[in-house]
Each structure stands twice: as C-alpha cells, then as structure tokens.
Design brief:
Helices cover 57% and strands 12% of the residues. It has helices spanning 2-10, 14-23, 30-37, 41-53, 77-88, 94-102, 108-111; strands at residues 28-29, 57-62, 65-70. Strands 1-3-2 form a three-stranded antiparallel β-sheet. α2 (14-23) packs across α4 (41-53) and α3 crosses α4.
Length: 114
C-alpha cells in the first residue's frame, strides 16, 4: 500500500506530471527543467526528489550536472504501470505541447554553465 500511495501522491501535482512528460522525451538536468517549466531551481529539485522517492525517475551524474530520466519501473509495479499509461496521456495539453516544442531549444551547455 505504501508504494502505491507514494506513486499516486507523486503524480498528484501538475508540475511533477509535466516533469514526467518532459523526461519522457529526453533526459534533462535540473536547470533545463527549470527553464522549461518556469519554476525556481529549489522547487524543481524538490519535485524531482518526490518523483525519485516514488520510483518514477532516477539520475546519473555527468560532470557537475545531475541528468534525470524516467525509470523503467523496476522498483515498483505501480510506477511501471503509471509511466506506461502517462506515455500516451496528456499529449494534447496546450501547455505541455509548448514545453515539449521548446525541448530542442534548451541548450545545457549555455543554460547551465556555472
């Protein structure tokens, strides 16, 4: 029951669903997500932590960047099913469509240079 509730709570926030949908297109770092969604870095990081705890996303380190991606749902059957379902859902949402269209314009090297 705990894992089910964790996944459902993680997906109960529109911004976390947007993050999932964006990561369904490609791996992204925090600053790229921040640029696409328009939230503060700390807010994006908190959302990513919730999604990670639910087994929906994980990350790899690349230099000084943490690159986030969707999991394959190995940790949780609930995460696996919801990620599969979300893959085909909400594709017609106008805000999400704009964000996905901007993916090709996000330049990690330029945007995230420290």
């Amino acid at each position: 029951m705990k894992q089910f509730i964790r996944v459902m709570k993680a997906l109960s926030d529109p911004n976390r669903v947007r993050i999932i949908k964006l990561l369904g297109s490609k791996e992204l770092c925090v600053c790229e997500l921040q640029d696409l969604i328009g939230l503060a870095q700390s807010t994006v990081s908190k959302h990513l932590k919730v999604l990670e705890d639910a087994g929906l996303v994980d990350y790899r380190k690349e230099g000084s960047w943490y690159i986030f991606r969707l999991t394959k749902g190995e940790e949780s059957d609930y995460a696996k099913v919801m990620l599969k379902k979300l893959n085909g859902w909400l594709d017609e949402d106008p805000l999400l469509r704009k964000m996905v269209a901007r993916l090709s314009q996000v330049d990690r090297e330029r945007r995230c240079a420290a």
